[in-house]
Amino acid sequence: MQKDIVFIDTSVYVKEKYFSEGNAITTLYKLAKEGIISIVSTDITNQEILRHMRNDCLEAFSKLKKQCIVLRNISIYKDSFDRTNKAVVEKEVNEILEKNMKAAGVYSLGYQLDESDVKNIFYSFFKEKAPFSDHKKSEFPDAFVLTLLENYAYKNRISIIILSVDDDMQKYDSYRLYTADYKKFINEKKVVKEKLDSIKSALDEQYDKICSEIQSKCEESLDDTNLYTYSVEGVDISFVTVNYVHVNYDKDSFYIYNEEEGTVGVEVECDIEFSVDVEYESTSNAYYDSEDKKWYGTESDRITIRKSANCYVDLKFDEKLGLGIEVFDVDDVLREI
Length: 337
Fold this sequence. Notes:
single chain, Rossmann fold, 2 domains
């Protein structure tokens, strides 16, 4: 299942009071850390967030000092009144943003625009096209941000979901950029996360069962003497012993390729290691009689073949029935022989 790529506008940060615990911003960042979405930003946006967050914190603290002066009587608050100043706030705000963006893997775009991009931005300004309205010069940062996002989306052939409460930004018309209500978007992603968590849980709980089924299919196929004709220097393969087949898959890594009628198609990548003993008639010290069309002087020999294979297994997930193997092509294993 392809992850949504999301841009969070400064307006959402301001409305949600930045990184307050449990709010929409921290929820979106958590979804990014859990691999449900990817977040893209720009250096322009990051500077806007820092400016707004710093100013809002300083304004709030100024009000606190004026209206809650009585708190100076409490030691833990008195220390805060004495220590807090613009430099302290600015330093901590920078650290908060950097720490959260790093943890969520936010990818930030720089200032790479060419002359045609700048011309188009000014054309939109003079024509009062979104994000400009009534020649508002304050929308220039948004115009540059949207152009950067659009260029990035076109270059990488992706779509970007814009989460914003800014009317002018929401009106921007683009083939690659789509606006969405951020609260509805979060609710939708929470449903997706619940489904993914259910699949992860099933992959964990049924790990032994799934691996055992794959192992059985491999053991059954590896027992075919015809498979080893080109693996030995000899003839008349008489016996194959499958020593072991080890199957492993990453329970946290999977791909959803289909959803229909309450079931989900899930693909997992498997690592398979196996060992077989092959008994045959060695021709290394023998000779072949072309008239009799047979080998003379062959000796019984045995070779151990150890191989590993990387392959994919399609599973079908049902919330009531759990997981079951839909498709496993054992030929992906056998072709390693």
